[in-house]
Protein 1
Amino acid sequence: MKKVSSLIIAAISIAILWYFFIKPQDYQIRVIAKSNTGIVNQSLKLWNKTLPKASIRQIEDLTHLEQVIITGDSTHMYKWNIAPITDSTSQLVIDVKDLNHSFANKLTIPFTDTNFEKQARKTVTDFIEKLNTHRKEFKVTFVGEDQLPSTYCACVEHNTVQSKKALGMMESYPFLNSVIVSNGIQLNGVPFIETTNWNMQNDSISFNFCYPIIKTDSLPTIKHLVYKQFTGRKSLKAIYNGNYITSDRAWYTLLDYANQNNIGIVKEPIEFFFNNPNMGGDALRWKAEVFMPLTDQDE
């Protein structure tokens, strides 16, 4: 009996030590989000910008983010873990810890619904509500495989972040339009962006914003304007409807499809735009065709 009692006491002691000093979170919240991994990731970062005293960083990949929110005399850390369920739903597991009052939380949480728990649930609920609102602002329709045509084009190079991609386009529209009109250059299609680098860790991108044109021997040399041959290739395709600020939401739909079906892709998305955002109007009527190139079979 003494041996059994000693084992029980040891097990209880280990459990107490783990609970108070090793367990990483004070509280854990689980919720289903009606969006894929990438959209949840980007929506979290967008929502974080609206909070007065908050910061967020991506850890390792799209599915892990660490957020710090300062509230009163406390600093709350939220570790967001995103696991895909289907192509349009994700399981969110959020580990929450009060960096200033962790021990007190662990002591009281088993016996009462603390203000800390209420605040954590309210924060997660607020995000889910913002995510659901955001989902209504755009539509992504997966199409399948398609062949991108090749074209000659006049381009402006940009280095920015995903959230400012549309701003770069809007700044380049008047410049490209004036060059095209004043030099009698013949257009050969709708404007598009060709992504040349996408850093998914910090959301930075480099891209060419291009007008397809008819190549001639008399194209003018103009500062900041680059002429190039765009080479089309077989790609995964989706249709995006919504404000072009968030057209990158279609990128993640294509990424998920490629991952789920073990399809090799080049993570350099291409977007063709059928509306001029400078003209305004109902953004849900704006259309973009979004492509993710497939890797060559011999690579």
Protein 2
Amino acid sequence: MNCQQDAELQERPGYLDDLEALLALEGKCFNQDRFSRRQFRWLLQRGHAHFQLLIDLDGQLAGYLLLLFHRGTSLARIYSLAIDPQRQGQGLGKRLLEAAERLALEQGCSALRLEVRPDNAAALRLYTAAGYRKFGEYADYYEDHAAALRFQKRLYKAPGGCVRQVPYYQQTLPFTCGPASLMMAMKGQAPELELSRNLELQLWREATSIFMTTGHGGCGPRGLALAAWNRGFKVELWINREGPLFTRGVRDVTKKEVLTLVHQEFAAQMQATDILEHQTEVTQDHLLQTLEAGGVPLVLISSWRFSRQKSPHWVVVTAIDDQFIYLHDPEVDEEDQKSRVDSLQVPVARKDFSRMACFGQEKLRTAVAVFPKRR
């Protein structure tokens, strides 16, 4: 694109008034996997979705970029990029990618991710030339069941030496984040382990120790630690509260009695193991030391910063560098336009993680570290 062509195009955010123009451009650019009017309207009204438009001198839409920011993380996702077919070859795609990087950096993001069809040669050339690198594949992603190639560009340096290669497992039920996280950690230490929904439910039955205000119970740190130890793994535990957890949020006397009984049973079982339990807050230094020693840590966080729901949620720490802590989040919130791509190696600023890894009125900080199997 020459300077005159570049000056002819105005770059600005997209608004609800641009809905008709976006629909028209979408129809020109895509034969399938198009956004509907309802989807465009919803995305234009969301606080963490951003449209960046290129408008020519006649007021016509020449291209658009849709960028998603995910709450509580330092990850941005290029969800869609479209250029008017009559304006292709003028460098507009490159300009929108540069806009995406600028906007992501303004939001404190460490990386941009996107998906692309394997047969979209022009897009592959564009992303590769802009510094995006393939880091995975997502099967059966598009309407015609084609796979999506997953690309990423780090806006800061990649994580250093403390990186654990941990396979990903998506929880299949709203209350099995703990079992799903434990399965990832165990698989990272024992590649031969077969991950299945049967195992997910078995672990949940073994480790459940928390009554939620509604719905099914969740898994506490001692239950997860015991489940891993019973399968032969070396386990370490940090917890800064004694006694049964989350009793302040439970009013029913019977439920409190159950919590107490379960806690007492788990505590008795822990005494018969060699699980190393630290009666202290887990710190980022503890997590870093665990990774350096070959362990995979599970950390309990408040899901508020991810989903605006006040509930305990387990995640897996896979890497730590000077600025970010990287997580596998077992939950894939499709209503929030997330896919598995957005739940792997999620970067969270270290200052934000400190606030996130603290739950409830009790200010609970806890983690379970899974090491290779005992000999």
